[in-house]
Design brief:
By secondary structure, this protein is of the alpha+beta class. It contains 12 helices and 11 strands.
Length: 409
């Protein structure tokens, strides 16, 4: 069973009061917070499972999921620092554990109820709105307008109610800026509208009408930015961006030991490797499965689309890679199984500064002790692709990063 946010927080409080390291639990809190927000975002995005991987909307969809993960890391860091600050009374003496728990309950109410509920609703609103934006842009030749629509109840902000019924032209290059949400817990929509039977408004006019009620983090085209949460929304008023990155770098280096996992990954799955397969055999298999873009499409255990390009495939099925001990061609048939039924999964950031990029490592253990790894990352076009697959000769050296999934006992 997945570990709950409550049990992770209980562990963090115990460790903090004892003066022990909480880093691995912060990483787990990041993952579970991201899971909660990502699930709401995914459900809100209309027909996400049917979007082609090579389209701008699917690339935005995946980029936004990564943005949610980075936001969740920021939140977990800020939350733990809030707990840490509550350890001491105003006179500088340490609180008893019971007193500390009482203070932590107040923090939990703020972070895991008030904040999380708002963030959850925000992820839903962005998912719905960005999905709607891409759909509207794709069909603007047939339906060239959208109408601003509110829920029409007492909770609608006055400044949003003033926009209700206004018509906007989808051919306006700045149309994305006024796609809701225009504030936290905003439930407004831009709905398709065929006939311009009254005067149209411009996004600039709408922004001017909203005035200072539209904060900078909402006055953006999220489809263009590919962000659910802007940097200003990532708790930087609680913990500076540079400090966040320093802590994330430390979590990035956590190993399986930090998560109290066993030295050997236990498995009852037989390897059943077809050792008669030749490099030419797998090349035929790849060619048969290849799509119009010369890629083979897979899905992982979270239904995330991931491709294996022809270039990457060819690179790993020639020369030294088809000789012992590599034998990549023999492990090619295991890629789908590793992705959909991994024993452990780690997310790890690579690079520095603005060049930092995440990679996901899927590890599948087998009954005879063999481990096969599939490693994926995001290419320059924003498409998630397999960069390599191989038998794990380094074993535990590859079990590093944010633990996304572990074997069920």
């Amino acid at each position: 069973m997945p570990i709950s946010i409550k049990s992770i927080i209980d562990n963090i409080l115990n460790l903090l009061h004892k003066g022990e390291n909480t880093l691995s639990n912060q990483a787990l809190l990041t993952v579970e917070t991201a899971n909660t927000l990502t699930k709401s975002f995914n459900k809100a995005w209309h027909n996400a499972d049917k979007i082609a991987y090579d389209t701008p909307d699917y690339q935005a969809y995946q980029s936004m999921q990564l943005n949610i993960f980075r936001f969740s890391a920021a939140k977990s860091i800020a939350q733990v620092q809030a707990y840490n600050a509550a350890l001491l009374k105003q006179d500088g003496t340490k609180r008893t554990f019971h007193e500390f728990q009482q203070e932590a309950k107040k923090i939990n109410t703020t972070y895991n109820k008030a904040y999380l509920n708002t963030e959850y609703n925000h992820a839903i609103a962005v998912g719905q709105s960005t999905s709607s934006y891409y759909s509207a842009i794709a069909n603007k030749d047939k339906v060239p307008f959208v109408m601003f629509h509110t829920m029409g109840d007492a909770n609608v902000r006055n400044e949003h109610a003033a926009l209700n019924g206004k018509i906007f032209n989808l051919n306006d290059k700045s149309i994305g800026v006024i796609y809701p949400p225009l504030a936290y817990n905003c439930r407004c929509e831009l709905i398709p509208y065929s006939l311009a039977n009254k005067e149209t408004a411009t996004p600039e006019q709408a922004i001017k009408q909203l005035g200072d009620k539209l904060s900078p983090e909402f006055a953006i085209n999220r489809a263009d930015k590919k962000e659910v949460f802007t940097q200003n929304q990532m708790y930087i008023s609680h913990v500076a961006w540079q400090e966040q990155n320093q802590i994330i770098n430390k979590m990035n280096d956590l190993s399986y030991k930090d998560f109290n996992l066993q030295e050997k990954i236990q498995s009852k799955t037989p390897l059943n490797l077809n050792t008669t397969m030749t490099p030419e055999d797998v090349k035929k298999q790849f060619k048969q499965a290849m799509d119009k873009n010369n890629n083979v499409l897979y899905e992982d255990f979270q239904k995330r689309k991931i491709i294996l390009s022809q270039d990457v495939f060819q690179f790993h099925t020639e020369g030294k890679y088809v000789k012992s001990p590599e034998n990549r061609h023999l492990y090619f048939e295991k890629i789908q199984e590793v992705l959909t039924q991994p024993s452990e999964v780690y997310l790890k950031y690579f690079g520095k500064g603005k060049e930092i990029s995440p990679s996901i490592r899927y590890i599948k253990a087998y009954e005879d002790g063999t481990q096969i790894i599939v490693q994926g990352g995001w290419n320059n076009e924003g498409v998630f692709e397999i960069g390599s697959w191989y038998k794990n000769e380094k074993e535990n050296n590859n079990r590093v990063g944010f633990l996304i999934k572990k074997s069920e006992k």
